[in-house]
Amino acid sequence: MNTYSIIIPSYTVGPEAYKEIPLYCARYGTRAVVIGGHKAMAAAKEKLLDAVRDSAITITGFKHYGTEASYEASAVLEQDPDVQAADMIFAVGGGKAVDTAKLTALHLHKPFFTFPTIASNCAASSSVAIIYNEDGTFREFVHYLQSAEHVFIDTQIIAEAPWEYLWAGIGDTNAKYYEVSISARNEKLPHYLAMGVNMSRMCMEPLFDYGEQAVADNRDHIVSEALTQCALTIIITTGWVSMLVAREHNMLYNGGIAHAMFYALCGLPGFEENNIHGVVVGFGILMQLLIDGDMEEYEKIRDFNRRIGLPVSLHEIGVTPQDVQAVADRIIADEDVEHYPYPLTVEMIMKAAEVLR
Predict the structure, then answer these.
(1) What is 5-59 written as a DSSP string?
(2) 31-36 vs 58-64, strand pairing mode
(3) Is the dihedral of CA 19, 27, 43, 62 positive or negative?
(4) Using CA atoms, how far apart are residues 7 and 184, in angstroms rounded to an integer?
């Protein structure tokens, strides 16, 4: 039997989360450099500086990550003297900013800490980086065994962020349960995979309990229990599940039709520019469940999407059945559906597309 290790990042959550920076970071050195997006760093800067003011840690600079999570952006940061001299890297912002900082830290062999300022994805807690080309097109997934040393989730900053990020994050996170559970169906799994598959239910259940209220509270910039529970589900639970089911490049159980459809549709002119990733993936669950023949769960997701305003038809994401036909072969060929409990066909996809038109 092979020997393996599982490293799950710890986290702090709440409106005063940054105050615990010295507790978790001081053991790694005294110099921290911040890498993030302009808006994210502006939202977090004063809280970050206040948190380290009376500690041994000094923030030596705030560095913009670039425009894409790319190897080119990371290479520029790796040559920055402040980044090179830092003992640790603070990754601040959304998915692309965090993934760029993650790449930089791992290439320079430096510990990194994440500070998500929006609740739209699990980049802050996962060990996967989604890499794009400089023109914005998808390039590849990069997998590491190392994740952030600690995740700091300031719920006041999350509440002040545009509500659309949380809204899209709910769609993306719901998909994790349905994709993982279907991909692993009827399989005898080792402990870590079984843990991830069973934990994936926690990517769905809290969102049904709190999602509608969380979106309303985010619109009103209210730090609430609903907002906190949804943020933790999107940022932490999904990241932990991904680390368990996608350990060491094993993507067999980490994807499904919802994500494959999104990446295939990105080949249509203007599609990615006009659609948020999580919104489309949240809709893609409906196609996945129709193909799977699970009408009970299909109706459950359809009704939930309607309550919070996520799309329930191709028309709402600017797509026709003919567009789906044009990319159907790409959906079937996507790595997210390489491991599935049954063969996928174009006919299956088009039958679902007609229902969802």
Answers:
(1) -----EEEEETTGGGGHHHHHGGG-SEEEEEE-HHHHHHHHHHHHHHHTTSS-EE
(2) parallel
(3) positive
(4) 22
Average pLDDT of span 138-157: 88
Q: Which one has a higher pLDDT value, 271 or 143?
A: 271
> Distance (Å, rounded) from C-alpha 93 to C-alpha 345?
39
**Residue 58's beta-bridge partner residues?**
31
**How far apart, in whole angstroms, are the C-alpha atoms of residue 108 and residue 89?**
10
The residue with tokens 């302009």 is 38
Residue 143, strand partner residues? 128
63: Cβ–Cβ under 8 A, 6 or more apart, which residues? 33, 34, 35, 36, 77, 80, 82, 83
Q: Measuring CA to CA, how many Å separate 262 from each of 158, 294, 324, 327? A: 25, 21, 11, 10
- Using DSSP bridges, classify how beta strands 128-132 and 138-143 pair: parallel, antiparallel or unpaired: antiparallel
User: What is residue 90's DSSP assignment?
Assistant: E
Digit-coded pLDDT (tens) for 83-140: 999 999 999 999 999 999 999 999 999 999 999 999 999 999 998 888 888 887 778 8
What stretches of the chain adopt beta strand conformation (E)?
10-14, 31-36, 58-64, 88-93, 112-116, 128-132, 138-143, 150-154
Neighbours of 133 (CB within 10 A): 13
Residue type, 258: A
In this structure, what token pair is assigned to residue 299?
Answer: 């109706």
Q: Which amino acid is at 185?
A: R
Interacting residues of 170 by C-beta distance below 8 A, sequence separation 6+: 207, 211, 214, 215, 230, 234, 278, 282, 308, 310
Q: Is the Cβ–Cβ distance between 11 and 236 less than 8 Å? A: yes
